[in-house]
Amino acid sequence: GENVEQHPSTLSVQEGDSAVIKCTYSDSASNYFPWYKQELGKGPQLIIDIRSNVGEKKDQRIAVTLNKTAKHFSLHITETQPEDSAVYFCAAPSAGTSYGKLTFGQGTILTVHP
Amino acid sequence: NAGVTQTPKFQVLKTGQSMTLQCAQDMNHNSMYWYRQDPGMGLRLIYYSASEGTTDKGEVPNGYNVSRLNKREFSLRLESAAPSQTSVYFCASSEWLLQPQHFGDGTRLSIL
How far is A101 from chain B (nearest CA, A)? Predict the structure, then answer.
């Protein structure tokens, strides 16, 4: 099955700074890499995803990059704002299973200080 | 725009009791899922339904059953609750199979 490692577990930045969260995965056949944001007391929210046929995808202040050779993908948030404070999860599918289930990382608690 | 609605939001059960967690989505999605979230363990898939009339086991199905009542609704049942099932349960839906997009706000379940 897939093994997904997410780092760092906590990240504290000043408003306006950039934040980067990195995930590594083990299954070279994995082809879909989503990122989720979870605010306190809420369910996860899909914020961006990338497929293995592209190396980078951007959506306003957030971007995801994928390095298939090294088997890692990263979430980049620029010009951080206090409302970006949340727990962020990466995920990757395990192509070795019969249904390609997503395996989630352990989460990164991002705190943006005003 | 309701999205994914879960009921109840909180529940306390005694060991051995049964209950059903309800989930409904209004986005006409084919695929629906049940996850549990435990500290330090991330989200783990319990069961999923690729389409109306079908259900399949996920990573941690033991102790649970599900029903895909119609395209909108997907329920999770605990027949005989155990303390190990204390968790936060999330329902999700998506257009594409196994790419969950929209999650409900969760049911916080405590089993004493």
Answer: 6
For chain B, say whether A44 makes contact (Cβ under 8 Å).
Answer: yes
Q: How many CA atoms lie within 13 A of B85 on its CB side?
A: 27
- Average pLDDT estimate for B4-16: 96
Of the candidates B45, B90, B103, which has its C-beta nearest A101's C-beta? B45
Say yes or no for a CB contact (<8 Å) between B43 and A41: no
Task: For residue B75, give the nearest of B91, B86, B63 by alpha carbon.
Answer: B91
Token pair listed for A39: 């605010």
> Is the CB of A87 inside 8 Å of chain B's CB atoms?
no
Asked whether the beta carbons of residue B103 and residue A99 sit closer than 8 angstroms, the reply is no
Q: Report the pLDDT value the prediction gives residue A98, as an integer from 0 to 100.
A: 46
Confidence band of B96 (pLDDT split at 50, 70, 90):
confident
Q: Which residue of B has its CA nearest to A95?
A: B98
pLDDT beneath 50: ranges in chain A: 98-99
pLDDT of residue B97: 75
CA dihedral sign, ordered A78, A45, A92, B87: positive
Looking at residue A1, its pLDDT comes to: 60
How many Å apart are CA A51 and CA B94, to the nearest integer?
A: 16
Check residue A95 and give its pLDDT. 58
